[in-house]
């Protein structure tokens, strides 16, 4: 077949079809938008580099290898003032992740409990839960952090008059002291048994769900799971000779030595993050549960299910479809709002890197970019993980 000549009606018709085709237009607009973004990024980079060079200011990430020269009050990973700014960055990330992960865990549990209590048939419990939500979520988080730090932990007794909790924990105005575990040579066997029990529990739950979907019968999961997770590692721990001891904090002089401790700033930040964000999760849980049709509950009662099983097997699984999307935002806000720790001196990433390190080194653009990259990475990771779970609980259209 002869090729279409340039300017022929057939070629013009083909071009018109491509222009009017929504698919081709969409691809074209995406290419143009991407090219504009790349050009803007390159323009900002070259302009900033030129301005810095004009003013005699150095740029780049070579400063990460320079000695920091300052101490950090509390850190999980080893750190000395002779370490580099790169090490400071890792210390800040570790401190931020520790407080954020612990806060997310307790925030989620407390939020679900308060959200369910808001729907309690007991008038007093429901009102107390409602007041908890309305007061805490309408009070600025920074104010709550300062309250816990200045009005609670700062007025605790001195180490000599420390509050003893359960005989092993100590709480005073210098922090919270707890025993430090000292694992023995064979403790890894117990850890391996625990991991195996968790995998077996997940497999049992998956098998129970599949059998219920196919036959309507549900295999008990709760007690067998608790048995595997608790009894199996405990037996392995005893058989291997209990290879675990503890280093308890002991008062020597004016302070405690031994064990592990967290500063008052950590405790204040953790409690404030938990109580503040749990109020938002509680409201999401209440709305999610109320979004489930009451007919579902009546149908479960007519089948003989008890109220506890009805909530756990019927209401909550359906409510999760409405709870998970806003839960993503709350989890991300916990991580980002942890940066308010700079107000009480907790050495998080913003405090030790974007404040102290920036003031000493002067690499403002690079440091701010690295801090933004960290928070963006954590937020996107949380969003991706919960979106996978959210997709699994959504209704599947046939």
CATH class designation of the domain at 85-155 and 266-393: Mainly Alpha
CATH architecture of the domain at 85-155 and 266-393: Orthogonal Bundle
Helices, by number, come to: 12
Tell me the number of strands: 8
> Strand sequence of the main sheet, in spatial order?
1-2-3-8
Report the major sheet.
4 strands, antiparallel
Structure class: alpha+beta
**CATH homologous superfamily label of the domain at 85-155 and 266-393:** MetI-like
CATH topology heading of the domain at 85-155 and 266-393: MetI-like fold
The succession of helices and strands, N to C, reads HHHHHEEEEHHEEEEHHHHH
Domain ABC transmembrane type-1: 93-386
GO molecular function: transmembrane transporter activity
Protein name: Polar amino acid ABC transporter inner membrane subunit
Family: Belongs to the binding-protein-dependent transport system permease family. HisMQ subfamily.
């Amino acid at each position: 077949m002869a090729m279409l000549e340039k300017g022929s009606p057939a070629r013009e018709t083909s071009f018109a079809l491509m222009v009017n085709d929504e698919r081709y237009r969409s691809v074209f607009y995406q290419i143009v938008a991407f090219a504009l973004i790349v050009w803007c990024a390159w323009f900002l980079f070259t302009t900033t580099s030129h301005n810095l060079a004009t003013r005699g200011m150095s740029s780049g990430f070579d400063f990460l290898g320079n000695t920091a020269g300052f101490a950090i009050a509390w850190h999980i990973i080893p750190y000395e003032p002779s370490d580099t700014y790169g090490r400071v960055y890792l210390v800040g990330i570790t401190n931020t992740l520790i407080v954020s992960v612990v806060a997310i865990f307790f925030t989620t549990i407390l939020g679900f409990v308060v959200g369910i209590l808001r729907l309690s048939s007991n008038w007093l419990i429901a009102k107390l839960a409602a007041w908890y939500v309305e007061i805490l979520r309408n009070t600025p988080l920074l104010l709550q952090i300062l309250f816990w730090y200045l009005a609670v932990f700062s007025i605790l007794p001195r180490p000599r008059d420390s509050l003893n909790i359960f005989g092993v924990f100590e709480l005073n105005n210098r922090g919270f002291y707890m025993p430090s575990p000292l694992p023995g040579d064979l403790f890894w066997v117990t850890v391996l048994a625990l991991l195996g029990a968790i995998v077996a529990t997940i497999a049992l739950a998956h098998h129970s769900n599949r059998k219920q979907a196919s036959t309507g019968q549900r295999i008990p999961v709760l007690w067998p799971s608790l048995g595997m997770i608790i009894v199996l590692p405990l037996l392995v721990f005893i058989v291997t000779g209990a290879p675990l001891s503890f280093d308890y904090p002991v008062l020597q002089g004016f302070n405690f030595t031994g064990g592990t401790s967290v500063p008052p700033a950590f405790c204040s930040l953790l409690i404030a993050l938990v109580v503040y964000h749990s109020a938002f999760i509680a409201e999401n849980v209440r709305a999610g549960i109320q979004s489930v049709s009451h007919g579902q509950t009546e149908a479960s009662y007519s089948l003989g299910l008890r109220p506890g099983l009805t909530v756990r097997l019927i209401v909550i699984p359906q409510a999760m479809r409405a709870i998970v999307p806003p839960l993503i935002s709350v989890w991300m806000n916990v991580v980002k709002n942890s940066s308010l720790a700079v107000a009480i001196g907790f050495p998080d990433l913003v405090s030790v890197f974007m404040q102290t390190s920036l003031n000493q080194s002067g690499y403002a653009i690079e440091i701010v970019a690295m801090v933004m990259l960290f928070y963006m990475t954590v937020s996107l990771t949380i969003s991706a993980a919960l979106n996978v779970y959210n997709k699994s609980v959504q209704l599947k259209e046939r």
